[in-house]
Amino acid sequence: MDKYRGQKNAAHFLYPPVDPFDRRMLEVGDGHVLYVEQSGNPEGQPVVVLHGGPGGGSSPAMRRYFDPAHYRIILFDQRGCGRSRPHASVEANTTWHLVADTETIRKTLGIERWMVFGGSWGATLALVYAQTHPDRVTNLILRGVFMMTQSELDWFYAGGAGRFWPEIWARFEGLIPEDERDDLIAAYHRRLFSGVIAEEVKYARAWAQWENALASMASNGAGGEPPGDYARAFARLENHYFINGGFLEEDGHILNRMDRIAHIPGVIVQGRYDMICPPRMAYELSSAWPNSEIRMIARAGHALSEPDISAELVQTMDRLAKA
Questions:
Q1: How far is it, in rounded angstroms, from Cα 21 to Cα 23?
Q2: Distance of CA 76 to CAs 43, 46, 106, Å?
Q3: How far apart are CA 78 and CA 258, in angstroms?
Q4: Cα–Cα distance between 218 and 34 in angstroms, integer?
Q5: What is the distance between the alpha carbons of residues 182 and 184, in angstroms, rounded to a whole number?
Q6: Are strands 292-297 and 266-271 parallel, antiparallel or unpaired?
Q7: What's the main place this protein lives (predicted)?
């Protein structure tokens, strides 16, 4: 299988992207049309990749973790983001719509059962999908676990992470008047959905920069300035989901339903120094899931691109391919 490998950096190797053998726009109802692609081996073991955000979109780099000789790799852009349309739309856009969309894709592609691979918000969606359709999932591979609990939102948007990055937090918080800072998610919501595009883009960039600045352990806090269209979709969708608690039934929804997926094998890959999704939730998830194994990566943050996280994910997918 080494012929499929391309060097990413000196630390590890990743599979190079392979051209999709199938791209399509799939109507899923409610006026939404999703971008869906398949690459790798058309007869191979199917794995669906659930991107983060909500609102992040898929990218060719997400194919790199799978040996294309073995895996049939399915990527798609969730409602409102990436190449899916309408762009940045929050209408008919909830966790339950995305679960139904994932199942529609499986049926459309004629797949009986598949692996589900997701990181950050993608891990949330993977868990909710598996708990809803446990008979359709062979394995779960999760990275940077996020379970849409209030404590996680408070950590990132009520000053927890800001204690480690005070100068970056001050920039993010400083755009909001002092009398609104008791609930930054709500304060940003008012501006991200103001109906004034220039204002929405301004606050969307600030929202995205705060998250991007903390994604990597090697970050210097700069965060970069994302393109306006991308930032607006990313920030509006994330904020829409967060202000609604992920549209889940109660705080702790996922942990309360772990009995539904107790039989599904799982691998959790978690950065020890993840500032966006701290390791506590990954540990709690593994403790409630006897059929899982957790890999704490000693020198890594949150990002999928963290070298040691990427290396672990490649090794995991290679190992599962041989199982």
A1: 7
A2: 19, 14, 11
A3: 24
A4: 34
A5: 6
A6: parallel
A7: cytoplasm
SS3 242: helix
Going by the DSSP 8-state scheme, the letter that residue 13 receives in this structure is: E
Which pLDDT score is estimated for 9?
A: 38
End-to-end CA separation in angstroms for the chain: 15
CA-CA distance, 47 to 126, in Å (whole number)?
A: 12
Q: Are 16 and 64 in contact (CB under 8 A)?
A: yes
Q: Which two tokens stand for residue 125?
A: 């969606």
- Please provide the DSSP assignment of 294-319 as one string: EEEETT--S-TT-HHHHHHHHHHHHH
Please write the tens of the pLDDT for every residue from 154-186: 999 999 999 999 999 999 999 999 999 999 999
**What is d(CA 292, CA 139) in angstroms, rounded to the nearest whole number?**
10
- Regions of the chain where pLDDT drops below 50: 1-12
Instruction: Say if residues 205 and 211 touch (Cβ distance below 8 Å).
Output: no
User: Active-site positions?
Assistant: 120, 274, 302
Residues composing the chain: 323
Q: Measure the CA–CA gap between 62 and 15, rounded to whole angstroms.
A: 10
- Distance from C-alpha of 232 to C-alpha of 320, rounded to nearest angstrom: 37
CA distance 314 to 267: 12
Distance from C-alpha of 200 to C-alpha of 190, rounded to nearest angstrom: 9
CA dihedral 31, 239, 148, 63 (to 10 degrees): 60
Helices (H) and strands (E) in the chain, counts: 9, 10
pLDDT in tens, 95-130: 999 999 999 999 999 999 999 999 999 999 999 999
Which H/E stretch holds residue 246?
none
Q: Which residue has the tokens 């799939």?
A: 26
- Give the gyration radius of the chain's Cα atoms: 19
